[in-house]
């Protein structure tokens, strides 16, 4: 038993399983070794028939129970340390408010013009602030900036610092928007010529990002503490990542998109050939309305996964969950396999549409929540 304990602890340490999963597994094992005190339903009988028999050897049963309790204590320590670290980090980010420690800010507005320089790439890097991008029919690129500056002795000093440290200019084939000012918050409305761009990338530490009616070959957005909202975009590939913040992508057209969050809800809806969404703590809702879609994949540790696909395409799918439910309501698919083993519920399904050569691969996994798969209501 000591060897088994070490092996399981090593699995947690190596990242093979999480502390939360280990605790759940131990709880289930504890149920297996305990005598059946109450009636169980038919589904539970199927899962536990071979193991839920009362053990006549009380001494061995007590040893097993003690062993399970010891392991649970070990995992509780490991799990609490990890969760405290994760929660502490998220809380610090959430509470990262620049207004509290520095008193009243100096507030002013600036309108900056980058000129008529031709560029294909946009690079944004903001330490503290919000950025919104809008297309314009004008040839000039300009930005309306609301500035909140802290720890200043005068408005003149605040403006001098802003003009000295805020970068907004075209550099070769790239438009650069940059601010590493920790005690100055900048809310930027960026207006760029309406055209197809090559690459748009944005990194924000504390603040939201939003883009609307923009076309680019590549979108890359990363926020540490902030929401991401993309509407009516057209792209080749989009990569979105947040540590603490929701991601909302609506009415987009693209080849592929990948969204990752640690703490936040993910919502993606569009005409997309490949969609991937993953959240540690958050609801994941993914929809593709593209008839030529190749893949839709959603995963969540603590949250529900919802996947919506067209009804008129070929499908090959798998839905799995360790502790939650699997709800696949696609009336015309063929169920290949459905099993509900301990900590391993799985449903596999296929559907062949003769006129469609491309098969959409569907994969959903929720460790503690529900996996739901449905057809979209409107495929147009």
Automatic annotation (TrEMBL):
Region span, Disordered: 36-66
Compositionally biased region (Polar residues): 39-53
Pfam families: DUF4097, SHOCT-like_DUF2089-C
Annotated ranges, domain DUF4097: 120-341
Domain YvlB/LiaX N-terminal: 3-31
Protein name as it appears in the record: Uncharacterized protein
């Amino acid at each position: 038993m000591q060897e088994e304990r070490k092996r399981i602890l090593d699995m947690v340490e190596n990242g093979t399983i999480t502390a939360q999963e280990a605790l759940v597994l131990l709880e289930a094992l504890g149920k297996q070794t305990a005598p059946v005190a109450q009636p169980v339903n038919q589904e539970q009988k199927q899962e536990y028939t071979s193991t839920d028999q009362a053990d006549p050897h009380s001494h061995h049963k007590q040893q097993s129970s003690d062993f399970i309790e010891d392991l649970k204590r070990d995992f509780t320590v490991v799990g609490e340390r990890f969760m405290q670290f994760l929660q502490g980090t998220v809380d610090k980010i959430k509470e990262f408010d620049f207004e509290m420690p520095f008193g009243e800010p100096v507030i002013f507005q600036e309108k900056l013009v980058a000129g008529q320089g031709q560029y294909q790439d946009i690079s944004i890097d903001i330490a503290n602030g919000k950025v919104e991008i809008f297309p314009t029919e004008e040839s000039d690129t300009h930005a309306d900036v609301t500035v909140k500056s802290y720890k200043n002795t005068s408005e003149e000093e605040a403006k001098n610092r802003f003009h000295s440290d805020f970068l907004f200019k075209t550099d070769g084939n790239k438009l650069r928007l940059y601010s590493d000012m920790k005690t100055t918050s900048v809310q930027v409305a960026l207006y760029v010529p309406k055209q197809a761009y090559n690459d748009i990338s944005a990194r924000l530490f504390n603040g939201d990002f939003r883009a609307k009616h923009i076309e680019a070959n590549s979108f890359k957005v990363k926020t540490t503490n902030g929401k991401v909202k993309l509407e009516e975009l057209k792209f080749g590939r989009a990569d979105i990542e947040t540590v603490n913040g929701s991601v909302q992508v609506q009415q987009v057209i693209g080849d592929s998109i990948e969204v990752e969050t640690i703490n936040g809800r993910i919502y993606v809806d569009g005409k997309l050939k490949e969609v991937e969404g993953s959240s540690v703590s958050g609801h994941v809702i993914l929809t593709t309305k593209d008839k030529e879609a190749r893949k839709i994949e959603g995963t969540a540790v603590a949250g529900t996964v919802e996947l919506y696909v067209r009804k008129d395409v070929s499908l090959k799918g798998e839905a799995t969950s360790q502790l939650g439910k699997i709800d696949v309501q696609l009336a015309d698919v063929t169920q290949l396999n459905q099993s509900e083993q301990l900590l391993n519920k799985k449903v596999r399904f296929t559907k062949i549409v003769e006129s469609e050569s491309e098969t959409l691969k569907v994969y959903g996994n929720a460790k503690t929540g529900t996996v739901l798969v449905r057809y979209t209501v409107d495929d147009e």
